[in-house]
């Protein structure tokens, strides 16, 4: 009896000793994770400070910002266009206005020089600066549409790679980070966007807000649907891997249907091009004999 009591006491002491050791290890691990998190946050803040300092040293960006419009709505609209095109720094707005106004002034002076030598009409002194007034905005819009198209095209592949990493045991944020580092040279546009999303979360922004800003930076249907799926899974706590797998499979199915629709329309479009080449030999065969008979009568 005393032997069993002694064993029970030893077992209880061993349990409490193991529990204290494990608790101490977990506390030390949490402290280390907190330190690493703070290091990451400090690194991102220092990077932000460097960008602000570089903006202050960019005199031509400051000059362009001072020459640009002061209306908040116009600035906000231009900033959305620049962000869609991949230019999200504050200095890019000033650089845009500086390049725009310098092109207008340079084109006006160049056309005035040509007019002074009587090489062009005075009308071109108005037409060419107006073209350069509208050209930068169209270029930014075109680059934004092209960039969003590339993000939409590469999104299914990115999600498939993330799903493979999640099936291997990684969380979806770690999977996004791993896939972004692996595909940065292949698909830089979408990898940069997801890395920016991870940086926002590391700074301290909530996942829901970071995902909403991700959708605002990339206003496409597929990205909006992806963000809704991720936010819904964040709230409900359901499996993100299954949701991403289903979402990517639905995207592939939609694209397959779109390609089939385009292939079905191709035959009708080709008929418009081929029809004149088919009608010409038919008319020659139909009217050739009549023309020969008509020629013999004369």
Automatic annotation (TrEMBL):
InterPro entries: T2SS_GspF_dom. Its main location: membrane. It comes from the Bacteria. Residues 158-287 form the Type II secretion system protein GspF domain. It is a multi-pass membrane protein. The chain crosses the membrane at residues 6-26, 97-117, 123-141, 268-288. It is found in: Cell membrane. The keyword Oxidoreductase does not apply. Pfam families: T2SSF. Keywords: Cell membrane, Membrane, Transmembrane, Transmembrane helix. PANTHER family: INTEGRAL MEMBRANE PROTEIN-RELATED, PILUS ASSEMBLE PROTEIN. This is Type II secretion system protein GspF domain-containing protein. It comes from Thiomicrorhabdus immobilis.
């Amino acid at each position: 009896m005393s032997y069993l009591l002694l064993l029970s006491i030893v077992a209880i002491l061993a349990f409490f000793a193991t529990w204290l050791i494990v608790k101490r290890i977990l506390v030390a691990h949490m402290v280390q994770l907190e330190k690493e998190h703070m290091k990451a946050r400090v690194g991102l803040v220092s990077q932000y400070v460097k960008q602000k300092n570089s903006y202050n040293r960019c005199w031509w960006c400051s000059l362009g910002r001072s020459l640009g419009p002061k209306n908040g709505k116009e600035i906000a609209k231009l900033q959305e266009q620049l962000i869609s095109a991949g230019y999200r720094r504050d200095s890019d707005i000033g650089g845009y206005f500086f390049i725009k106004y310098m092109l207008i002034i340079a084109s006006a002076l160049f056309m005035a020089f040509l007019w002074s030598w009587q090489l062009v009409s005075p009308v071109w002194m108005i037409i060419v600066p107006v073209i350069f007034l509208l050209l930068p905005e169209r270029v930014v819009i075109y680059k934004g549409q092209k960039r969003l198209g590339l993000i939409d095209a590469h999104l299914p592949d990115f999600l498939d790679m993330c799903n493979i990493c999640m099936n291997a045991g990684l969380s979806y944020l770690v999977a996004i980070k791993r896939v972004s580092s692996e595909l940065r040279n292949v698909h830089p546009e979408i990898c940069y966007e997801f890395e920016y999303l991870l940086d926002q979360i590391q700074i301290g922004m909530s996942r829901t807000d970071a995902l909403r800003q991700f959708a605002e930076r990339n206003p496409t249907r597929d990205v909006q649907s992806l963000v809704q799926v991720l936010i819904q899974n964040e709230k409900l706590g359901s499996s993100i891997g299954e949701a991403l797998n289903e979402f990517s499979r639905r995207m592939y199915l939609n694209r397959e249907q779109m390609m089939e629709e385009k292939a079905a329309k191709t035959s009708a479009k080709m008929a418009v091009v081929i029809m004149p080449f088919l009608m010409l030999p038919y008319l020659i065969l139909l009217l050739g004999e009549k023309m020969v008979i008509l020629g013999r009568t004369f």
